Amino acid sequence: MRDQLLSPTNIAELASVSRPVVSNWRRRNPDFPQPVGGTESRPLFSREEVIAWLTDRDYEVKEEDTVATIWSSLNTLRGSVDFAMIDILTLLLLTLRQHLPETFDDIADAGPDEKLDLLAEAEAELREGYPTDDRERLALDVRDVLRGVDANALQPLLSAVQSAERSRMAEYADELMSRFNRESRMGSTFGSIGARSSTLLASLAKETQGTVYDPASGIANSLVQVAQHRRARALIGSDINTNALILACLRSMLSGSTITFVLGDVLADDPVPDLQADVIIAEVPFSPHADHSTLLSDPRFRYGIPSRMGGDLLWVQHALAHLAPGGRAYLVTTTGALRRSRVDQDVRTELIKAGCIEAIVSLPGRLLPSSAVATVLWVLRNPDASSTDVLLVDASETPDAENVAPTWFTGAPITAPHLRVDVTDIIAEGSALTPALWIGATDVDPSEISGRVADSAEALEQKISSLATVSVDIDSLAGLSEARIVTIERLIEMGIVERRPGRHRKSPDSSENSAIITSSHVAKQSLPEPLDTPALFPMEETEPGDVLISTMNVLNAMVDTTGNHHVALGVERLRVLDRSVLTPEFLALAVTGKWNERFRDGVAIRRIPVTDLEIPLLPLEEQERLCTVTLAVRALERDAEELIRHSRSLTSSLLEAVRHHVPIGQTPSRE
Fold first, then answer.
1. Which residue, of 4, 235, 532, 600, has the fewest CB within 10 Å?
2. How many CB atoms lie within 10 A of CB 297?
3. What is the C-alpha to C-alpha distance for residues 598 and 568, in angstroms, rounded to an integer?
4. Would you place residue 614 in the very low, low, confident or very high pLDDT band (cuts 50, 70, 90)?
5. Rg, Å, the chain Cα set
6. What is the DSSP string of 499-516?
7. What distance in Å separates the CA atoms of residue 257 and residue 232, rounded to the nearest whole number?
8. Nearest Cα to 107, choosing from 127, 93, 95, 126?
9. Which of 81-95, 134-148, 413-427, 433-447 shows the lowest mean pLDDT across its residues?
10. Quick one: CA dihedral 72, 78, 80, 85, positive or negative?
11. CA distance 367 to 191
12. Among 6, 129, 24, 136, which Cα is nearest to 61's?
C-alpha cells in the first residue's frame, strides 16, 4: 500500500503553520524528509515520515479531518489523471462507499491487477441507480480515466474514502467540490457549491409542494437544496453536459435526494416536451446560442425569435412553455436582455403585452462566485390579460438579496427601491426593463441626499485639516553615502538575490477569488487574499518578503508581506537571500527608479528585462532611512487620493441635490 503523500501546503495545514514555515524547515533542517514524489518545484513527501519528523521535535500535529485526508490523498494522482475528471472520480468513490460498501471494500482490498476491473464493474452497477433514463450516455470509462496510472497510486484515495464516515458522505462531497471549484473553471460552467445564485433560486422554490424544474441544472446546486426541504412532489433537472449530469446524479444519490435528470440540449430539442411545472428555476448560461433556423416552427417560442445575442429570451420562453396553471418561473440572467434593441425589444414587448413578466429584480454583484457580471432575476407567470404593470426592484445594493428577495414574493415588505410601472409606459420607452432606469428618478429620499452632501463635506474638511499637519522629514537623509550601482543580474550572481520561478498563466475564466498576483495588483500596491486552503496542484507559492516586479509598459514593484500567493505571467518574483546587504523594501523601491526606463524594449508591449534593472546599493542603515521617508511620502499620496475621492463624492451629491431639488446647506434630519 502506497503511503499518503503531502505537498508543502498539506504539511502546513497538518502542522497549523504557514506555508513559508515549511519552506524554512526544509531549508534549515538537513534531516527534514526528502521528497518521494512530485517534481522539484512541486515536491511530495511521505505523510508518515513528515509526522515522525514533527513528532520528534514536539510540534503539535493537527488531527487531519476527513476532507483534508481525501484531498491530500489525491496528490498521488497528480499529473496522471485529467483534472476535469478527478472530481467525478472522487465523488464516484464516495457514492460507491455509501451505496455499495461491500463492493467498495473489495476494491480497496484487491490487488493492483484487479482494482481497475472491479472499479469498472462497480461503476456500472452504481450507474443502474442513477436517477435518469440516460444511464448509458452517462457511463464513465474508468479504465480510460485511469489510463497509464499505477493502480497502487489509487490506494491512498481508496483508503481515505474507506475510513470516512458513511453517514457524512454528502457533506464531504460538497466540501471537496468547493475545493475543486476553486482549483478549476468548473464553477463558472456547471455551478459552484455555495453559490449565492443557487441559494436565491432554492429559496424561491423550497416551499413548493408540486413539481420543480431546472432546465439548466448543472451539478444540481439549487435542486439538491430544494430537495432537503422534502416538500416538492417532483424535482426534475436537465443539462447539456454529460460530466455535469454525472456529478448531479452522484450528488443526488449522496444527499438522498429524489431528483430526476435528463440529458439534452434544451434550446435545440426540448427534452421534456410534456412537462408542466409549478415552479421553474434556472441560472441561465452565459451567451446561450441556438440554431435559429430550427426555432421558427418550435411552439415554445411564440413570443418571437430574439437576436443571436439574446439567447436568454429563449430560456424565458422555454420556462413559460412549461409552466403549469398558476405556476411561477424564476430565472437569473445577465442584464443584456433587459435593454437590447430591435428584435429583442420586440420579444420583450410581446412578453409584456401578454402579462408574462411579473417582476424584474436587479441583483447585487458577486452573486455568481466566478464572475462579476451584473445579473437580474426574472419573475414570470402564465399569460395574464388583466396585468397592467410590472414590478421593478433595484436590489443591487441589498447585501443579502439571496435571502431577502424570496420573501418579497410571499407577502413581506420590499426593502429595496422599487416601483410598479404601467405596461403602456414601459412599451412606450422601448420595453426597457432595467429597474434603475425607472426607479432612479422617482424613488428618492431627500434626507438621504442632503445627508450625503453633509457627510461628504465634513469628510472633505477633516481630510484637509489632517493634511495640514503632515510633514516629510527630508533632512533625515542628509549625508547619504555614494551608492554602488549594481544590476539585478549581478546581485543574483553574488547570491544576494534569487530569481524565483513558478509563474502562473491566469485563465480569463479563473475565479476572481484566486490568490494570483497580477501586474494590476502590483500597480495598485494591493495584494489579493492569500490561499486559504491547500491546492490540489499547487504552484510554488510566495513567501513573506518576496519582491514582485511588473515591467510591462509601467515599472512597478512591491513586497509581498504575507506570502501564500501565486504569481501570474507579467510579474517577476525576486527573493532577497542576504538581508544583511539588502532589504526587500529597498529593492522594491530602488528598481522603480526612473533611470531604469532606458532599458525598456519592445513594440506592442514594452518591457524591461528584470536582470538589467540597476540598484543604487547603500549601506543597510541608509536603506532603512530612505524607505522610512518614502513610506511617509506614499502615505501622503494615499491621503491625497482620499481627498480626491471625498471631493468627487461631494460634487456628485451636490449635483444629485440639484437634480431632485433638495435644499443645500441645511442640517439634514437624522431621525
1. 532
2. 7
3. 25
4. very high
5. 30
6. EE--EE---TTS-TTS-E
7. 11
8. 93
9. 433-447
10. positive
11. 12
12. 6
C-beta atoms surrounding 7 within 10 Å: 26
Q: Which of 337, 427, 340 is nearest to 388 (CA)?
A: 427
Residue 394 scores a pLDDT above 60 = yes
Question: Amino acid identity, residue 239?
Answer: D
What confidence score (pLDDT) does residue 187 get?
A: 47
The grid coordinates of residue 157 equal: 484515495
The pLDDT confidence band at residue 602, using thresholds 50, 70 and 90, is low
Question: How far is Cα 83 from Cα 194, in angstroms, rounded to an integer?
Answer: 21
591, 487 Cβ separation under 8 angstroms: no
pLDDT in tens, 542-582: 889 999 999 887 899 999 998 888 888 789 999 999 999 99
Q: What's the one-letter identity of residue 122?
A: A
DSSP label at 331? Answer: E
Strands 277-283 and 375-381 come out as unpaired
Three cell numbers, residue 557: 514593484
> Which amino acid, residue 202?
A
Nearest to 599 by CA among 470, 487, 440, 432: 487
pLDDT in tens, 222-236: 999 999 999 999 999
d(CA 267, CA 368): 23
Beta-carbon neighbour count of residue 537 at 10 Å? 14
Distance CA 559, CA 587 (A): 9
Question: Do 529 and 515 form a contact (C-beta atoms < 8 A)?
Answer: yes
Contact 253, 170 (CB under 8 A): no
Are the CB atoms for 242 and 234 separated by under 8 Å? no
Contacts of the segment 182-186: beta carbons below 8 A, 24+ positions apart: 182/511, 182/513, 182/514, 182/533, 183/83, 183/535, 183/536, 183/537, 184/83, 184/84, 185/370, 185/507, 185/509, 185/510, 186/84, 186/87
Please tell me the predicted confidence (pLDDT) of residue 563: 86
Between CA 260 and CA 220 the distance in angstroms is 11
Q: 322-341: string of b/e by CB count within 10 Å (b at 16+)?
A: bbbeebbbbbbbbbbbbebe
Q: How far is CA 243 from CA 145, 356, 444, 584, in A?
A: 13, 34, 48, 47
State what percent of residues in the chain have pLDDT above 90.
Answer: 56
User: Exposed, middle or buried, 533 (CB in 10 Å: 0-12/13-18/19+)?
Assistant: middle
The amino acid at 602 = G
Q: What is the DSSP letter of 382?
A: S
**Location of C-alpha cell 475528471:** 85
Are 389 and 422 in contact, with CB atoms under 8 Å apart?
A: yes
Q: Which three cell numbers stand for residue 6?
A: 503531502
Q: Which of 288, 358, 372, 368 is nearest to 330 (CA)?
A: 358
Strand ranges across the sheet with 546-550: 497-500, 572-576, 546-550, 556-560
What is the DSSP secondary-structure string of 110-173? Answer: S-HHHHHHHHHHHHHHHHTTSSBS-TGGG---HHHHTTT--GGGGHHHHHHHHTS-GGGHHHHH
CA distance 15 to 534: 13
- DSSP element (H, E) containing 586: helix 584-590
Amino acid at 449: I
Q: Which of 357, 128, 298, 332 is nearest to 218 (CA)?
A: 332
Average pLDDT, the chain: 87
Which residues 6+ apart lie within 8 Å of 228 measured at CB? 255, 257
| Cβ contact 322:276 at 8 Å | yes
